[in-house]
Write a structure and sequence with these properties.
alpha/beta; 6-stranded antiparallel beta sheet; 6-stranded mixed beta sheet; 17 strands
Length: 412
């Protein structure tokens, strides 16, 4: 192969879901944060959708690899199953051999397992990939499983990932009860033009390029035009281009190599092949003026208590004070919260949480902190409440709208 010629340690554009090559665009980071929220908040499903090749499976593999030991995971990828076969597949993931069990035995075993794990202080997570293939009957079984709970909280956390058809199924009239259980939805769109270039350079760097520019500057726009920013298509075209350059004993990819690869693949421009327009990325041009606007939403807070989401709150530039009394911007009526407990300061390029000399303090990753720069997906423990920070600096589509925009909101 071409590794020696390009001075790389490994192939940079393989199609398999290898977590070490994951490029966390803003959208991928958001989807990952939503997945992480399932560990903290037990109420409702999280649904992640994306086109074929958008990077959902790689994201899931990365998420699973980073889970703490107290999280027990069942990952189901084969979804064209009957309800009983699906439940058996879940039990297999938990280490059982359920194939001689009848459905009632399968359900009993699952329920007992979930409650036992919860009693032992472990969290149980079910991840279903390719969930668009699930029948309505199987989706209804999943909804019923999500109802298993102890006196304190739900016993099963659930992530459904799939192609956009999954949203259509969840919005159907026969699955209204399931749709009402969905707490967060996120659609993983294709990469922008700038992200496509960064994605290519990232994978080359992981493979050992050490900062060397292997693709010519004039190739990136063409790659975007023919792939539409879809990671799997980018991998295919880049690998073919490197093979073409290798055939000519060239240690870098030129526009001519790229054009030869496109001819060999018999591709047309992405917009033509899908009847879709490639929408220009205005985000970079708009980011600066938007950041200075007081109306810009730069972040969100998901506030939960007892494993259940109590509120989703927008963050705009400025200061948000959290405390027990009504004079705070965000009131949490709890004996564990000080009168003025902490504040979150949101600026164009940063968001910081600060303790306001509270009695019980604030904690990030079980460590008490006085001041902490918030990153996408961080969870801050405030008394008995968890506050998850979601970065919103780049506008993107969300299927759910926010709840409150009042100056003071009370949580009980």
């Amino acid at each position: 192969m071409y590794l020696e010629l390009f001075k790389l340690r490994e192939l940079p554009f393989l199609l398999g879901p290898d977590p070490q090559f994951l490029y966390l665009s803003k959208q991928h980071a958001r989807a990952k944060a939503y997945m992480q929220s399932t560990v903290w908040f037990t109420d409702g499903f999280v649904v992640i959708t994306g086109e074929i090749g958008a990077g959902k499976t790689t994201l899931i593999e990365t998420f699973i690899r980073e889970l703490q030991p107290d999280v027990v995971v069942a990952q189901v990828n084969q979804t064209q199953l009957t309800p009983t076969a699906f439940l058996q597949a879940v039990l297999v993931q938990f280490g059982f051999s359920p194939f001689d069990m009848k459905k009632v035995e399968v359900l009993t075993t699952l329920n007992e397992f979930l409650l036992d794990q919860q009693a032992s202080g472990r969290k149980v997570l079910l991840i279903v990939d390719e969930a668009q293939n699930l029948s309505p009957r199987v989706l209804e079984e999943i909804r019923m499983l999500s109802g298993v709970e102890s006196a304190k909280e739900k016993s099963l956390r659930i992530i459904l990932a799939g192609q956009p058809e999954l949203n259509e199924k969840l919005n159907s009239a026969e699955l209204v009860q399931l749709a009402q259980r969905v707490r967060l939805r996120f659609h993983l769109a294709a990469l922008t033009k700038a992200e496509t270039a960064a994605y290519i350079d990232h994978r080359l760097e992981v493979a050992g390029s050490q900062g060397r520019r292997i693709f010519g500057e004039d190739t990136y726009n063409t790659i975007y035009r023919y792939t539409g920013g879809v990671p799997r298509l980018i991998n295919t075209l880049c690998d073919s281009s490197m093979m073409t350059a290798f055939g000519k004993d060239q240690d870098h990819v030129t526009a001519a190599n790229l054009e030869a690869a496109i001819r060999e693949l018999q591709w047309v421009e992405f917009a033509s092949s899908t009847n879709r327009m490639l929408i220009p990325n205005f985000e970079a041009d708009m980011a600066a003026p938007l950041a200075n606007s007081a109306a810009t939403i730069l972040g969100r807070l998901l506030i939960a208590h007892g494993g259940k989401t109590a509120l989703e709150r927008e963050l705009k530039p400025g200061r948000l004070v959290i405390g027990r009394t009504p004079d705070n911007d965000l009131q949490i009526d709890s004996k564990f919260i000080s009168r003025h407990h902490c504040q979150i300061v949101t600026q164009a390029n940063a968001c910081v949480v600060e303790d306001l000399n509270s009695t019980n303090g604030i904690f990030v990753q079980s460590k008490r902190v006085r001041r902490h720069n918030l990153n996408d997906g961080d969870v801050v423990q405030v008394g008995e409440h968890e506050i998850m920070y979601i970065d919103e600096r780049v506008p993107r589509l969300r299927s759910s709208t926010t709840t409150t925009d009042t100056a003071v909101q009370e949580i009980t």
